[in-house]
Design brief:
This protein has helices at 3-21, 26-40, 47-54, 58-77, 79-91, 95-113, 116-134, 138-154, 160-168, 177-196, 205-209, 215-220, 226-240, 250-261, 270-301, 303-312, 316-330, 335-350, 356-368, 378-386, 391-414. By secondary structure, it is mostly helical. The longest helix has 32 residues, at 270-301. The protein is globular, with a radius of gyration of 21 Å.
Length: 424
């Protein structure tokens, strides 16, 4: 047996034992797995490599931290509640459009933080009462929240698995917006209409208003949405006209918009809001540090190269079967780990088959779907808790949307050579 395979098995074994049996955090389990792999390879405890790995994704860490500050600020200011009320009152006569817009609200926190958990716990908690009031059964509402949060996690501008895959092959995180929007938006629309549209008949707006915060929008008006609009404008301008617009950087943009949100809506304690945001974000940041150490040791010991060579030996059919099963399956433990451990080798194998940015984007999308997979199922479990159920009945209604997402991703992968125009 190859030493690289032994190293890989040791790392995965220690990681799974720590996370699933000992119930340790994913970050700690990954660090222990990295140390175990180094010991098996005869490298001792490589402090320098562990330290370097810890800071591999420092740019991503800055983006997530500032994005969570912004998300907390607009949530406390009342912008999300006002937007929710505006959509329902304006579009209740067109249920399909109303559901799609509500789905976009569920996605929004995930889009700017890269976390499905943040999407479920913030926007999901606000949208859930409306879905239930409409008449959508709890298990279907939970499935809508779970899949919507994952679509937000996979959508641009912040897709952490895509950043991890791109970083693993020294590819800049540029040009991912087109492919990611092309896969996430259709899947999100299909999910919410498939699961909820038939229950949206003869809606009573007066009943719906009882679960809406109608006052915050009336009190603060348009200025409540200024931070969100400013964020969109700055993100678009820095990419569309880079020669005319100063390159502020995504973390600084999020931070500036968070400061603006403090003054445009309900008054709140900015310091307490910042502490709450960091308290929510620290587990995600710790995962990224653990993933960085894990990947660093995989590279040091040669196990990462062994994975790539092994993948090259798979036939075309087996390769795509592995992509559709192993990647989301590994994501049941950590979608970030799936992106780093499996996403990078699969990307290297598929480089010659089409546009590399499109392929990386689609692989990251498949990794994100791991947040639906038990036992961890972060998005699914939190969504089930919000609607007051266990995850099992919610999971049953996630199956068809999951299969549709996988099927569409494979179709795009097979035709990625024709999708290069989306990345320019």
């Amino acid at each position: 047996m190859d030493i690289e395979l032994l190293v890989l098995l040791a790392m995965l074994g220690v990681f799974l034992i720590g996370n699933l049996l000992l119930k340790l955090p994913v970050s700690i389990s990954m660090i222990l797995g990295a140390v175990a792999g180094a010991l098996v390879a005869g490298e001792g405890i490589p402090i320098r490599h562990l330290f370097e790995g810890c800071f591999t994704y420092v740019d991503t860490i800055l983006i997530i931290s500032t994005a969570m500050l912004f998300m907390t600020a607009i949530q406390r200011s009342g912008a999300l509640e006002a937007l929710n009320a505006l959509i329902v009152t304006k579009f209740y006569k067109v249920p399909a459009l109303m559901l799609i817009l509500l789905m976009f609200i569920v996605m929004f926190p995930g889009m700017i933080t890269g976390s499905s958990t943040a999407a479920v716990l913030s926007a999901g908690a606000i949208v859930a009462p409306i879905l239930l009031k409409i008449g959508i059964p709890k298990e279907r509402a939970g499935a809508i929240l779970a899949v919507g949060a994952i679509m937000g996690m996979a959508a641009p501008p912040v897709n952490i698995p895509a950043m991890l895959i791109a970083g693993g092959v020294d590819m800049p995180y540029i040009g991912f917006e087109g492919p990611l929007f092309l896969i996430t938006i259709p899947c999100a629309i299909f999910t919410v209409l498939f699961l909820g549209l038939k229950y949206c008949k003869n809606l009573n707006i007066e009943e719906l208003k009882k679960d809406l915060d109608m006052e915050v929008g009336k009190k603060y008006g348009f200025k409540l949405y200024i931070p969100i609009l400013l964020l969109v404008v700055l993100l678009v301008l820095t990419r569309a006209v880079p020669k005319l617009m100063p390159q502020l950087g995504t973390p600084l943009i999020f931070l500036l918009c968070a400061v603006v949100a403090v003054f445009t809506g309900r008054r709140f304690n900015a310091w307490e809001g910042g502490l709450e945001a960091m308290d929510t974000t620290i587990p995600v940041l710790a995962k990224l540090m653990g993933v960085g150490m894990f990947i660093q040791v995989l590279t040091l010991t040669g196990a990462r190269g062994w994975i790539v060579v092994s993948c090259l030996g798979l036939g075309t059919v087996l390769l795509y079967v592995a992509i559709c099963t192993i990647m989301p399956g590994f994501g049941a433990v950590s979608s970030y780990g799936a992106a780093s451990v499996m996403g990078v080798p699969f990307l290297l194998v598929l480089l010659d088959t089409g546009d590399q940015i499109t392929i990386a984007a689609l692989l990251s999308f498949i990794c994100c779907l791991g947040d639906l997979m038990p036992p961890t199922a972060l998005a699914g479990n939190y969504a089930a808790q919000i609607v007051g159920l266990k995850y099992k009945p919610v999971l049953k209604h996630c199956v068809i949307p999951f299969l549709v997402c996988i099927a569409l991703a494979v179709i795009y992968l097979l035709n990625s050579k024709y999708m290069g125009f989306l990345t320019r």
